[in-house]
From TrEMBL:
Its main location: membrane. Belongs to the binding-protein-dependent transport system permease family. FecCD subfamily. This is ABC-type enterobactin transport system, permease component. InterPro entries: ABC_BtuC-like, ABC_transptr_permease_BtuC.
Length: 346
């Protein structure tokens, strides 16, 4: 490892990566925060378990009762919050880098709404459940991304046009989702509405594997191409001058971000604002114009894990969906962002 100002170069296995030292520290601290809150979530609930007993169970030396509580009741939910938060944070920072816009997240360009449409079609029209709903969400997300790309394409894809097309497609799909719920039976509508809010309650190992595979496959890819993200954010001409293969890097990063968003939504529903807020919050902590992919992913994991703790304890005896917490915090964040932009420009 060699230092260069505030940057360090990590070398190993024939590969070298140059990272911002403060961003690296911020990412590590955020990861520790996320793991710390996750440990608290494992210990708290209707049957409180001491931290020492949880750690003993995770190490394979717990008793049968503690193992049941940890592995069957709480660990899948905790892992889903960590993995889904990380996937949304990484996806958000890629989209914001590609669109050069702080609002360019999967929430605003319609991808999560498209995933919701796919899931609702399976739930309310085809009568499917479980892994079939997750598959419908993934297919819906992928089809929506293709539609937005084709609608925005005109001798290339301009970021501003991509966001506008995403907002338009999102509005159309929102209307379609409302119609699907309107025409369904009351019990089906209630189940669909809970799914649309976004929740990790009741999720199991199937969802853990789903989003875990998406992260395991796509995260190394986006980390490799993520080194081009800062150059792409400065414009195509500057990126070309620095030797970045613009179209290939943009296509790989966009497809990987769509895959991460699809995996996260399939596992926990369309959880709002984590992908939007995690990258700029991580960037502010790192004092960098753009958050790195790993700091943004760690921030997403920390936000969603803390949000799930609040969802379980905000109203005693009532476990509310975590999507309500993230939506409330996201509204505060969006208000602050607009106020900050107005003050900066004024």
């Amino acid at each position: 490892m060699s230092g260069q100002g505030t940057r360090v170069v990590l070398r190993g296995g024939g590969l070298s990566v140059r990272v911002h030292l403060r961003a690296l520290i911020v990412g590590v601290v955020l990861l520790l925060v996320a793991l710390g809150v996750a440990l608290v979530n494992l210990t708290s609930g209707d049957f409180p378990v001491p931290v020492a007993d949880v750690l003993r169970s995770l190490a394979g030396r717990g008793d049968a009762g503690t193992d049941f509580i940890v592995y069957e009741l709480r660990l899948p939910r905790v892992l889903i919050t960590l993995l889904v938060g990380a996937a949304l944070g990484a996806s958000g920072t890629i989209f914001q880098g590609l669109t050069r816009n702080p609002l360019g997240s999967p929430d605003f360009v319609g991808l999560t709404v498209g995933a919701a449409t796919g899931a609702l079609v399976v739930m309310l029209i085809l009568g499917g459940g479980g892994i079939q709903v997750a598959t419908g969400a993934i297919v819906g997300c992928l089809l929506t991304s293709v539609a937005i790309y084709l609608l925005a394409f005109r001798r290339g894809v301009q970021p501003f046009r991509l966001i506008l097309m995403g907002i338009g497609v999102s509005a159309l799909l929102e209307a379609a989702n409302s119609y699907l719920i309107y025409r369904s039976r009351l019990d089906e509508a209630l189940a669909a509405q809970v799914w649309l809010i976004g929740s990790v309650n009741g999720r199991g190992w199937t969802e853990v594997v789903l989003v875990g595979v998406a992260l395991a496959v796509l995260l190394p890819l986006v980390l490799y191409y993520g080194r081009h993200l800062s150059m792409l954010a400065l414009g195509d001409e500057i990126a070309v001058l620095h030797g970045v293969p613009v179209e290939r890097s943009r296509a790989v990063l966009a497809l990987a971000a769509v895959g991460l968003s699809a995996g996260a939504t399939a596992a926990a529903g369309p959880i709002a604002f984590v992908a939007l807020a995690a990258p700029p919050l991580a960037a502010r902590l790192a004092r960098s114009p753009h958050a790195g992919i790993l700091p943004a992913a760690a921030m997403g994991a920390a936000l969603l894990t803390a949000g799930d703790w609040a969802a379980q304890h905000a109203m005693p005896g009532n476990d509310i969906p975590v999507g309500i917490i993230t939506a409330a915090l996201g509204g505060v964040y969006l208000t602050w962002l607009l106020f900050h932009e107005r003050r900066t420009r004024g």
